[in-house]
Write a structure and sequence with these properties.
Layout (H helix, E strand, L loop, with lengths): L1 H19 L9 E3 L2 E6 L6 E5 L4 H4 L7 E3 L3 H7 L14 E6 L6 E5 L2 E3 L9 H24 L3 H12 L3 H7 L5 H16 L1 H11 L9 H22 L4 H28 L2 H26 L4 H9 L2 H11 L7 H31 L3 H34 L1 H16 L6 H15 L5 E7 L2 E8 L8 E2 L4 H9 L3 E2 L5 H9 L4 E9 L2 E9 L9 H33 L7
Antiparallel strand pairs: 1-7, 2-3, 3-4, 4-5, 5-6, 8-9, 8-13, 9-10, 11-12, 12-13
C-alpha cells in the first residue's frame, strides 16, 4: 500500500508539474474564432453564443444569439476552451451545427484564425518562475504529508495542491500535442481545477483533524462530497454540454461563499489557543477563494492580471500556516519527506550519469552493465549510511530552532549523571524542556511518602500541593504501560483535573527506577497551540530515562556516604 501510494502521489505531482511548468515560459500564437458564451441551457447539449463581427465564426455564418450544438469533445475543446483567454489549436477545423432562433439546424465548419501572441501570461519570466516555484513547493508539502501521514485530511490537502496549478498557460502551450491527447490533458487538468473549490471546502471542514469530527462538520462534509462527485461525473460524462459551463461559472462563486462561512463558523466555535493556531490557515483559505473567484469573474485587464499574481499569496500563506504555525503537525513528516526526495534525486542523478557515461564511452554491453550494477550497489550502501546525516542537515536548515532545542535536550540528558542531587535533576526535567521547546507548562511528580507530589513546575501557579494517589488512573496507566501517555487518550475527568487546577498538559512520561514508577513528568503543548512532534517526544523520553538513572546514582552516592560514615575510624577504641 505504501508503494502504491508513493506511485500515485509522485506520478500525479510529476504529471501536473510537467503540464504546468514549461508553458509558463512559452509564448505560442493565439487561435481566434470569435465565439463566446452568451448563455447556457442545463438539459441540452447546446450553447447560445455571442459572435464578434468579422471573425472566422461570423464569416462562416454564425451570429450572436445563435444556438450551437452537435459538438464532439474535440470540437467543443477548440470552440469553447476552459479558459477563454487562451484558445487552442490554430488551423483545426470545428464541425458543428447551429440554428437561428427556433429555425432549422444547419451544419457548419469553421477554422480558427492565427493571431500574434500577447506576451507571457505572467508578463515576465521572473514572475512565471516565482509562480511555478511556489507551486512546486506546495506540491512537495502535499506529497510529504500524504506519504508520511496518510489520512482524509492530508489527501484533501494534496488534492488541493494539485488543483492550484497555473493551468491557464498550459491551455495555449500544449497545442503542439495531437488534438486527442491535448483534449485529454486539458480535460483532466481543467476538470481537476473545477474540483478545487469543493476540495478546499472539505479541507476547511477537516483540518487539523484527520477526519471531520461528528456534528455539523461531518454532515456538511458528506453533502459537499456528494456535490463534488456530481460535478466530477458531469465533467466525465458530458464535458461538451452546457452543464460544465454552468458549474464552472457558478460553482466557484457558490463554494467561495460556503468556504468562507465554514471558516468563520469554525473560528467562532474554537477556543482561544486553537483559534490562534488556525488563524493563518483561515486567512490563507479565505484569501485564496476570494482571489481565485475574482480571477475567474473579472474581465481581462489589469485587475484580472493582478488577481492572477495574487494567487501566489494563497499557497505561501497556507504553507506558512503549516510549517511555521503548525496547523498540521508536519515538522516530523516533512523532514522525512524531504530526505526521501533528496535520496531519490541522488539515486536517479548518479545512476543516470553513470548510465550516460557508460553508454557514451563503453561499447561493450557487459562491461557497462557491470559498472552500472556496481555503482547502483555502492550508491545504495552510501545513501543508507548517510540517511541520518542528510536528515540532520535538513532538520538544521528547515527547522533550525527545533533542531537546536532537541540538540540541547540531548546534551542536558547526558549531563544528568553528573547532578549533585535531586533538586538539580528536577530543575532540568522541568525548566529546560519548557524553555527550549517553548511549552505552555511543565511539572514533575515524584513519590513522596504515600503519594506522587509535585516537586517542581513551571508556568503553573497552582502546582504546589497538587498530588496523585498510587491508585489514580494516570499513575496506574503509567506504571503498567511504562511509556508516554497522551492525556487526551485517557478519560476526560483526568484531563479535567488539570484544567481545574489551571494547567493544560498534553503528555505524561514515566520515570522508572528499579522497575518501579519513581515519578513522572507532565508537559504541555507549544505556546502556539501545536502538538509535540515525535522527535520532540523522543527527546523528552530520553531526558526522563537519563533522569531515572541520575536519581539512582544520587541515591547510591547517598547510601555509600551513609555507609562510610557508619564505619569505625581506625585507631578509635
Amino acid at each position: 500500500m505504501t508503494a502504491l501510494r508513493a506511485i500515485i502521489v509522485i506520478g500525479a505531482s510529476a504529471f501536473f508539474l510537467l503540464v504546468a511548468g514549461p508553458p509558463m515560459f512559452e509564448n505560442p500564437p493565439w487561435p481566434y474564432t470569435g465565439v463566446h458564451y452568451e448563455s447556457a441551457t442545463l438539459l441540452q447539449k447546446n450553447v447560445t453564443v455571442r459572435v464578434d463581427p468579422g471573425s472566422p465564426a461570423y464569416r462562416a455564418g454564425l451570429r450572436s444569439g445563435d444556438v450551437v450544438g452537435c459538438l464532439s469533445l474535440a470540437d467543443f475543446q477548440v470552440l469553447f476552451p476552459f479558459f477563454p483567454t487562451i484558445l487552442p489549436y490554430t488551423g483545426s477545423p470545428v464541425n458543428a451545427c447551429f440554428r437561428h432562433g427556433s429555425g432549422a439546424w444547419h451544419n457548419i465548419t469553421l477554422t480558427p484564425k492565427r493571431i500574434p501572441p500577447p506576451g507571457l501570461f505572467y508578463n515576465t519570466p521572473l514572475l512565471a518562475a516565482l509562480r511555478i516555484v511556489v507551486y512546486a513547493a506546495f506540491l512537495l508539502v502535499g506529497c510529504a504529508l500524504v506519504l508520511a501521514r496518510p489520512s482524509v485530511m492530508t489527501w484533501l490537502f494534496f488534492s488541493y495542491c494539485l488543483a492550484s496549478m497555473p493551468d491557464a498557460t498550459s491551455q495555449g502551450m500544449w497545442v503542439t500535442l495531437p488534438l486527442p491527447v491535448y483534449t485529454l490533458v486539458t480535460a483532466v487538468t481543467a476538470g481537476w481545477i473545477m474540483l478545487g473549490a469543493p476540495i478546499l471546502a472539505l479541507f476547511a471542514l477537516t483540518v487539523p483533524a484527520d477526519v471531520p469530527p461528528p456534528g455539523w462538520r461531518r454532515v456538511l462534509f458528506r453533502i459537499i462530497a456528494v456535490v463534488a462527485a456530481l460535478i466530477a461525473a458531469s465533467v466525465v460524462a458530458s464535458p461538451a454540454t452546457s452543464l460544465m459551463g454552468i458549474l464552472q461559472t457558478n460553482g466557484d462563486e457558490a463554494f467561495t461563499v460556503i468556504t468562507i462561512a465554514i471558516v468563520i463558523a469554525r473560528l467562532l466555535t474554537m477556543d482561544r489557543q486553537e483559534r490562534a493556531r488556525f488563524g493563518w490557515a483561515a486567512f490563507a483559505i479565505i484569501f485564496g477563494v476570494v482571489v481565485n473567484d475574482a480571477r475567474n469573474v473579472l474581465p481581462n485587464g489589469v485587475m484580472s492580471t493582478a488577481a492572477g499574481y495574487l494567487t501566489i499569496v494563497m499557497p505561501l500563506a497556507l504553507m506558512y500556516a503549516i510549517l511555521r504555525r503548525h496547523v498540521i503537525d508536519v515538522r516530523f513528516v516533512l523532514s522525512r519527506g524531504v530526505v526521501f526526495g533528496v535520496i531519490t534525486t541522488l539515486v536517479v542523478g548518479v545512476i543516470g550519469l553513470v548510465d550516460w557515461a557508460t553508454s557514451a564511452y563503453l561499447s561493450e554491453a557487459r562491461a557497462a552493465l557491470a559498472i552500472d550494477a556496481a555503482v547502483t550497489i555502492a550508491v545504495g550502501i552510501a545513501l543508507h549510511r548517510s540517511y541520518r546525516w542528510i536528515e540532520t542537515a535538513i532538520d538544521a536548515v528547515l527547522f533550525r530552532k527545533k533542531h537546536t532545542a532537541e540538540a540541547y535536550l540531548e546534551r542536558a540528558a547526558r549531563s544528568l549523571l553528573r547532578a549533585d542531587g535531586e533538586h538539580t535533576i528536577d530543575t532540568v526535567l522541568v525548566e529546560d524542556p519548557c524553555e527550549t521547546l517553548d511549552l505552555t507548562m511543565a511539572a514533575l511528580f515524584r513519590i513522596q511518602g504515600s503519594s506522587y507530589a509535585c516537586v517542581a513546575s513551571m508556568s503553573w501557579e497552582a502546582a504546589d500541593g497538587f498530588a496523585f494517589a498510587p491508585g489514580h488512573d494516570l499513575v496506574r496507566f503509567l506504571a503498567s504501560e511504562r511509556t508516554r501517555i497522551a492525556l487526551t487518550d485517557l478519560r476526560k475527568h483526568i484531563h479535567a483535573e488539570f484544567i481545574e487546577a489551571g494547567a493544560a498538559p498534553a503528555v505524561a512520561i514515566p520515570i522508572l527506577c528499579d522497575d518501579a514508577l519513581f515519578g513522572f513528568a507532565i508537559y504541555g503543548l507549544h505556546r502556539d497551540g501545536t502538538q509535540l512532534d515525535p522527535d520532540e517526544l523522543a527527546s523528552l523520553e530520553r531526558l526522563c530515562e537519563m533522569a531515572a538513572q541520575a536519581y539512582t546514582v544520587v541515591e547510591l552516592r547517598r547510601y555509600r556516604g551513609n555507609a562510610l560514615s557508619a564505619l569505625p575510624v581506625m585507631g578509635t577504641p
